[in-house]
Amino acid sequence: MEFSLTFVSTVIDEEIIQKDILPDLLEGDFATIGDISKLLPVADVEITTDMSKVNQKIYNGYVLLQIETDEGKYAFISAQKEITRALSAPEIEFSVIGPKEAFVEAIDQNLNLIRKRLPIPELIIEELTVGKLSKTKVAILYIDQIVDMTNVQTIKQRIDVLDFDMISDSSFIEQLLADNHSSPFPQFLDTERPDRAASVLGQGKVVLIVDGSPHALIGPTTFVEFFVSFEDYYLNWIIATFFRLLRVFSVTFSILVTPLYVAALTYHYQMVPRAVMATLISSRQGVPLPPILEALVLEITIELLREAGARLPTKIGQTIGIVGGIVIGTASVEAGLTSNVLLIFVALAALASFTTPVYKIGNTIRFIRFPFLIFAQMWGLLGIVFCFCILLTHLIRLTSLGRPYFEPLYPPRIKDIKDTIIRLGFNKNAKRPQFLRTQDTVRFPPKDAKRKLDIDE
């Protein structure tokens, strides 16, 4: 029997052809192309008459088999070359306590990490292909009989209508599927931790995994979830609540401290205590710039140091961040361009912004400090309040997959507060969040959580 094999050598594993395909084809007995799937020890063999699939399959790592006596039929045999890196510890969501596994760029390996944590048939994985040029695989994960299928249908519908050429990372999908493309706030939670992805699936959420990306997307999400580190669940609930409140305070401090400084020295110096005012006046002696320019110079300098440290190689970046901050800060105070008090405030604000456990919300916090600064310069405390009202209105109107982004604060849901800016014990979290509208709302019977057996029972 004469046959031909067609493949692209750069995307297939030649060892598979030499060991698993050719020996069986040369020694085996087959009359039609339909016998190939039974003959070869390869699980992924597709028989088709659709010639339009030829190019797509070949460039995706399949071997095209054609038989002379069976024209018009094609067999695609999987022989992809898997180039993956070893599992490593999370870099962005690193935790002292808990698993030290992070997602990698291979979608099959990422799915395996989640399957290992959820070995149940109810875990559904649907694969789609996105991108006219990249043909990127996107996996939609959810648990049947728990998830609200409206969320799944919304994601599938938005992915189906995507008309984009290149999907290189999950960040592309996040921006394309967002409810509001003009919002600086991320509307999908980005994670590199398989344990976090598996946990939110149990809550009734949907997880998106994109081939080539070491980050998974979680939706729908809420604003307060971006201040939750998954390590909180490995700690006592009292300690975890303290850390969450500390993060909320740190972010609030990071946003408001510099605008309050500008507003106080520009419009409301009479509200500052006399002892504090004396310190501020002495620190600003010889500074030629008004408070707004002084604050902008330091804020932009901090951002330049951050960006330089992030883009340079690791060892050089750390040196630039530490030495640059010390040298520039000291030199600017000695040169009389800024006051030492404002330098302390800006440094503390920069330090406080690093407490956010999710990188993308940290970028948003860094950005919204500048509108607050501008409004503080224009109208003082009234401008800060006005800017806060604009921000609050935007957050209230924002949605994630059609669900309220500011839940449980708006709409107010008291029962969902137990695992937001505070975290109560596991025995208090017997039900899934209300805003997810899950099919099965109960995680475990509340009575069993409180019941403790004695040694003689």
The first-to-last residue Cα distance is 73 Å
Summarize the amount of helix as a percent range.
Answer: 40-55%
Which radius of gyration do the C-alpha atoms yield?
A: 28 Å
Mean pLDDT: 86
Please work out how many helical segments DSSP would assign.
Answer: 15
Instruction: Name the shape in a single word.
Output: elongated
Strand and helix order: EHHEHEEHEEHHEHEEHHHHHHHEEH
Summarize the biggest pleated sheet: 5 strands, antiparallel
Estimated share of beta-strand residues: 5-15%
Strand order of the largest sheet: 5-6-8-9-7
Return the domain count: 3
Structure notes:
This protein is of the alpha+beta class and 457 residues long. It folds into 3 domains: 3-78, no CATH class; 107-221, no CATH class; 237-404, no CATH class. The protein contains 15 helices and 11 strands. The strands form 3 sheets. It has a 5-stranded antiparallel β-sheet with strand order 5-6-8-9-7, with helices on both faces. Strands 1-3-4-2 form a 4-stranded antiparallel β-sheet. Helix 10 packs across helix 12 (340-353).
